[in-house]
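Email to the structure team, subject: Lysine exporter LysO family protein model.

Hi all, the expression group asked for a predicted structure before they design truncation constructs. Nothing fancy, just the tokens so they can compare against earlier work. One-line instruction: predict Lysine exporter LysO family protein, return tokens.
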Amino acid sequence: MQSVILIFQIFIAISLGYFIAPRLSKNLNNLIFKILPYFSYVLLVSVAFELTQALNHIDNPTTILPPALLIAFTTSIFAFGICLITYKLIDRQSVQGKISFNLFFNALKNIAKAFLALGIGILLGLIINHSNIQFTFNSWYLLLVFIFLIGIELAHTQFDRSWLSWKILLVPFAAFVGSCLASILNYYLLPKAFKLNEVLALSQGYGWYSMSGILFTELHSAKYGGIALLTDLFREIFAILLMYCLGWRFPRSAISSAGATSMDVTLAMVKQSCGTHYVPHAMMSGLILSLLAPLLISLFLNLKI
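Reply from the structure team: attached below.
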């Protein structure tokens, strides 16, 4: 139910922006277009800040950090790789983005800015933690504002039939297959205390840490809730780094690695690194994975394997 409510809020925000855009003045639209690129860095600061807050509220975080990092890293890489291979086999012409010195130089600048934003967020989180200040931060409303602005920009974007192609479905499909394959590898790398169905379930959050952490705590245990939370937080950060490093070159693969976050947090990076043309791809992939994530987590946790 929670996933349906959150997805509904996202579509209300983007629809509102899309239908309001024609009624806005040209100067106001231009101002919004100038503001949008900076939103991605604000979101990065908020993600890093929430990570430090999450670590501060988890008992013995050092015991759950290694499995969370391993699962996050492997699922992100496998999703990226499976998507790349799939498109090379089915639609080779759509695999790669444009190559130019300017794009490469801009990618390097964006990576540097991304690391700076992450550093600022972590620093702010550490300052708050060490100051013992009671501060609650929820980036969800910030995301809704950003989605609203994306809707305004989409209203000025020309659509084409390629956005409705069945090939777009390969992006979330690759994310699912890559995550499952990574889980099989992780099952042999992680301590024997982890069962295969638990590792599979931990890979199905697709970066949606606010959902997976709560769901695992309710269905399994607080410890696994913490692992799920950190796994998807790290998965979101890995996706952001992949987006900035390789999104301009392999846009669909980068979107696949972003999982459910391609519909909200990393949508800013999709627009910035892959181009506005890939925003509908990201929205569709993020929507499908957001709907599937809680169902798949529940399914795998109930399997006896």
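The radius of gyration is 19 Å. The mean pLDDT is 79. Ping us if the truncation boundaries need rechecking.
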